[in-house]
Specification:
heterodimer, A: mainly beta, Immunoglobulin-like, Ferric Hydroxamate Uptake Protein, Chain A, domain 1, Maltoporin, Chain A, 22-stranded antiparallel β-barrel, 45 strands, B: alpha+beta, six-stranded antiparallel β-sheet, four-stranded mixed β-sheet, elongated
Chain lengths: 793, 183
């Protein structure tokens, strides 16, 4: 500014016949930029079709030139015309690659070329600030949730979950004991600007084992403008009688520096079903994240740290001792333990902590592409508390520490827009340490896991309409465990024949063994993205992925209390191999009657690992069904349909439907826990200042399920009787409504104050959900009034 | 700038190598679960006598009980942890210490066999006997089972059926019983 003012003043005083000429060039591919503008002192010069420019009538002084192009980031360059008469300007074409700009905006770019993807923006996530990522993702068709009560929510992508899904937490693959069905992802929804779901294994840069898909949670630093902004959000809910506060502050500087701070606190007591209190379902969460970084055209770096700390009560009545207790729970319409409302959280409960530290840098090489390098460190601690006796009363029954280091790098060759390549590797080292202080035999053993992966992905434009992609990845995984086996179990499983050499020590009635297994795999993906008549698009993808068995599948050998079953793993397991074909057709304008997306898919999974009942074991606590992990062949197919219609300018309707068919083709029976067909529909009325939304979620009864029922005996009136334990039949379908509204005020700034209210489960409907692990014990939560304010500054 | 990136790369890889090599190959320590109950012991004493018979239930061996018809007995139950034979622990002490949270209950399919809590039984703070010590009386000859339960945190301690008490079942074991006419 100062320089150009100087220029104006000087212009009157001097001879002004100097000139400056040169080219404006795209930095990353060296192409000349046509129609770029150079402005200074109220003058504007436009480049010709070869990117050339000439400025005449300049004085012998310094000028500040602003070089701009519609596709590029503007640049200000100061040049002393007395010394320089020719100059080429390089502009950065790939604006979105800078991980910056407006934090509120959502990048339009897809992560993959041919995979079915969906995303949620910050605005959509705002509604879920006091809930979890799993709750928010249900907005996406084909994404369901596997829950344990209302606070432990795991995302399910097209029927698959846990170890079959990769969660990318701000660029880092989340490692938080994700194998457990009652282990929710340890991350705070408020730490992110955007959530993205890739429904398939084709995003090979993240891993070769995402048979179910990838969830990408992103947050971006702001930069390249001098700015300071933030927001504070408060949500108070009637159900659980609690709420959450979240504050975020963003700092940005023109020079490219940026920083961000964000923190969330949540505090809830017992939730309530329509007819009773769900005792011991309180929930606490404190999380914090901070990042800083520097970005410019050529290079950038970023440091990020996040901390998540949560304590979750588990429904008291879901803690059972044996099968008889389970039968009593199933036969009772109401939970067997209902206490007065309290904020206290007692056993059974979970306490989890997750630390994540990331250091990342990139450097862009002229006419070539961009090199990324990233190191991350994660530390996860999970404690699970059961109801215990005596001195052990306050001790955790499970206490796992998981430490993960990852070093990764990739090179994105993007200088040629028609032929992009991405090459990279990931190295990861992980140590799992169960704390022996629990006094309970380790559910999963001490292990060290080393993994290495290399990938190559390419994307090329065949013509204006058709873009193809292909990728390949190689992974190596080594699991080196130290596991205690009861000697009789070791022999029963036949391990004494096959794995005799693994024994390294004799500890009374247990063997200490050292299983050390290597897994090598190749994953591949290929697809096309085809645009046709008037913005319609068609995606087709084939992906092949492998997943090495996880620690539970290999090593489980005992009673799983929350399910009242004995679970047995198998050391002999091989990798799961999945082949998936997916198609997605989007018609944004269907005969002027809205937009329609239809996405069918089919997967063939070999060596699919699942739990199957195989018998009954008599213990001192009574009889328990024994479930063994087995490998089988699986067929999965389904369809996701999204339909959007703008009825008037202000009134919108949309509906999403998903259906999944899962079959064990070896045993010719349905797969367990497949989401039932469901609709999610909403009517939105939106005006400038306010909006209202009515949402309906309708889930059919799942009619396809395996029959795992078994018989148990009991004594009544001095007679021994048998009874069928129905653990298989899914609950009835249900339909619930949510009503949401919000109004925007302008207090100090434009629309800086947003007040909203919502009622979920509007009619206080009692229902149970097939994918809720507590469906045997209690109804889902009832009506919930939430009031929230969001203040931007 | 390239040098800076290279420097960063160098630092990262050093950090990575450093942590990767921080291996200690010590073996984890063995866990012998302490709260496990391995044995349920019934001490059956004919009323008014000192004639006692002890019956054990373990995963590996189950003793059968023989009673005489038309006779009264006292049965005392014990819960033991014998996983370490050199250090047998009597969990019954803990149960008695936490008597408000525990309740012992029996069911039987033996015709005419009934029980009530004994006068020397442990009484909780609500003045309810928790059935550590029970009095039994038999009638005619019959066979069947006695099923013994140890219930943790029952919702109530009054009832006639296992279903009435709620709570979690810590112990559920069957003893075969024969009631025989005295020879």
């Amino acid at each position: 500014m100062l320089v150009s003012l100087l220029g104006v003043f000087s212009a009157f005083a001097q001879d002004c016949d100097a000139s400056l000429s040169g080219k404006v060039i795209d930095f990353h591919d060296g192409a000349p930029l046509k129609d770029a503008t150079i402005t200074f002192d109220n003058r504007m010069i436009v480049t010709d079709s070869n990117g050339n420019y000439t400025i005449t009538g300049l004085c012998q002084i310094s000028y500040a030139f602003t070089i701009s192009h519609p596709d590029c980031n503007s640049q200000v360059v100061t040049i002393d015309v007395a010394k320089i008469s020719t100059k080429d300007f390089y502009l950065e074409h790939h604006y979105t690659d800078l991980d910056q700009v407006n934090v509120e905006s959502v990048s339009q770019k897809k992560t993959t070329n041919s995979q079915t993807e969906d995303k949620l923006s910050r605005k959509q996530l705002d509604q879920y600030s006091s809930l979890s990522i799993g709750d928010a993702l249900k907005e996406i068709s084909g994404v369901n949730s596997l829950t344990s009560g209302n606070t432990i929510v795991k995302p399910v992508i097209q029927g698959l979950h846990s170890s079959r899904i990769i969660i990318i937490n701000n660029g880092v693959r989340q490692e938080d004991q994700e194998w457990g069905e009652e282990h929710a992802p340890n991350l705070d929804i408020n730490a992110f600007n955007e959530l993205k779901v890739i429904k398939g294994a084709g995003a090979l840069q993240y891993g070769g084992n995402a048979i179910g898909g990838v969830i990408i949670a992103q947050n971006r630093l702001t930069s390249l403008q001098d700015t300071i902004f933030g927001n504070t959000q408060l949500a108070l809910s009637s159900n659980g009688r609690g709420g959450g506060v979240n504050t975020a502050l963003n700092l940005g500087f023109k020079k490219g520096w940026g920083a961000k701070f964000q923190g969330t606190v949540k505090h809830f007591g017992d939730s309530e079903a329509p007819d009773y209190i769900l005792s011991n379902t309180g929930h606490r969460e404190q999380s914090f994240s901070t990042g800083f970084g520097f970005n410019n055209f050529v290079y950038g770096f970023e440091g990020y740290y996040s901390f998540y700390n949560a304590k979750q009560g588990i429904l008291r009545s879901s803690h059972i001792g044996n099968v008889g207790d389970l039968v009593r729970a199933i036969n009772n319409d109401t939970p067997l333990v209902i206490n007065d409302f309290t904020y206290d959280i007692n056993a059974p409960k979970q306490e989890t902590q997750h630390h994540l530290l990331k250091l990342k840098g990139y450097n862009r090489l002229k006419n070539l592409g961009r090199l990324n390098l990233q190191y991350s460190f994660q530390f996860n601690n999970r404690k699970e508390f059961d109801i215990r006796r005596g001195d052990d009363r306050d001790k955790a029954s499970l206490d796992l520490e998981l430490l993960t280091h990852t070093l990764e790098s990739n090179f994105l060759f993007d200088s040629n827009d028609n032929f992009k390549k991405n090459l990279g590797f990931q190295l990861s080292y992980q140590v799992n340490t169960p704390d022996p202080e629990t006094g309970v035999r380790r559910l999963i053993p001490d292990y060290k896991k080393t993994s290495a992966g290399v990938f190559a992905i390419t994307e090329f434009n065949i013509n204006e309409q058709l873009t193809a992609d292909a990728g390949i990845r190689y992974d190596f995984v080594n699991i080196n465990a130290k596991k205690f086996y009861k000697k009789d179990f070791w022999t029963d499983r036949g391990y004494n024949q096959e794995f005799e050499t693994l024994i390294i020590a004799d500890e009374g009635d247990q063997w200490l063994t050292n299983p050390n297994f290597d897994y090598n795999s190749i994953s591949a993906s290929a697809g096309i993205n085809y645009s046709y008549s008037n913005q319609n698009s068609l995606l087709f993808n084939i992906s092949y992925a492998n997943r090495a068995p996880n620690a539970v599948e290999l090593f489980s050998d005992g009673l799983h209390h929350s399910a009242a079953i004995i679970e047995l793993g198998d050391l002999r397991f091989e990798q799961e191999k999945s082949l998936k074909f997916s198609l997605s057709n989007n018609t944004p304008n269907l005969f002027n009657l809205g937009s329609l997306t239809i996405s069918p898919y089919v997967s063939f999974i070999d060596n699919f690992i699942l739990l199957e009942p195989t018998g009954v074991d008599f213990t001192i606590r009574g009889s328990f069904p024994v479930w063994e992990y087995k490998q089988t062949e699986v067929l999965l197919y389904g369809i996701d349909i999204d339909y959007d219609l703008n009825i008037t300018k202000h009134l919108k309707f949309n509906t999403a439907f998903s259906y999944i068919y899962g079959q064990d083709t070896n045993l010719e029976r349905p797969l367990i826990n497949m989401p039932a067909p469901n609709f999610r529909s909403q009517i939105v009325y939106e005006k400038e200042k306010w909006n209202m939304k009515l949402v309906n979620t309708s889930t059919f009864k799942q009619t396809r399920y395996p029959n795992n029922n078994f018989e148990t005996d009991f004594i009544e009136n001095g007679m021994e009787k048998t009874e069928l334990v129905d653990i298989s039949t899914p609950p009835e379908g249900y339909s619930i409504f949510d009503l949401t509204g919000s109004y925007q005020f302008s207090l100090w700034g434009q629309n800086d104050f947003n007040v909203g209210a919502s009622i979920t489960n509007l009619f206080d409907t009692s229902y149970r959900d097939y994918l809720n692990r507590q469906r045997f014990y209690a109804d889902n939560i009832g009506r919930n009034f939430t009031f929230n304010i969001n203040f931007k500054f | 700038m390239k040098t800076m990136i290279n420097k960063l790369a160098f630092i990262f890889s050093i950090a990575f190598i450093f942590v990767s090599c921080g291996d200690d190959d010590e073996n984890p320590i063995v866990i012998n679960e302490e709260e496990t109950i391995t044995t349920v012991k019934l001490t059956v004493t004919e009323s008014g006598t000192t004639n006692s018979q002890v019956y054990d239930w373990t995963t590996d061996s189950k003793d059968d009980i023989t009673l005489a018809s038309n006779t009264s007995y006292n049965i005392k139950i014990q819960f033991l942890d014998e996983s370490d034979p050199s250090n047998v622990e009597d969990i019954t002490e803990e149960v008695i210490l936490e008597k408000d949270e525990h309740f012992v209950f029996y069911q039987t399919t033996v015709n005419g066999l009934t029980f009530t809590s004994a006068s020397d039984d442990t009484v909780d703070s609500g003045n309810i006997s928790i059935n550590i010590s029970t009095d039994w009386s038999s009638t005619g000859a019959a066979t069947g089972v006695i099923r013994a339960f140890l219930i943790h945190e029952p919702t109530t301690k009054t009832g006639n059926d296992r279903d009435d008490f709620g709570g979690e079942t810590d112990i559920e074991v069957d003893f075969n019983v024969s009631v025989v006419d005295p020879v």
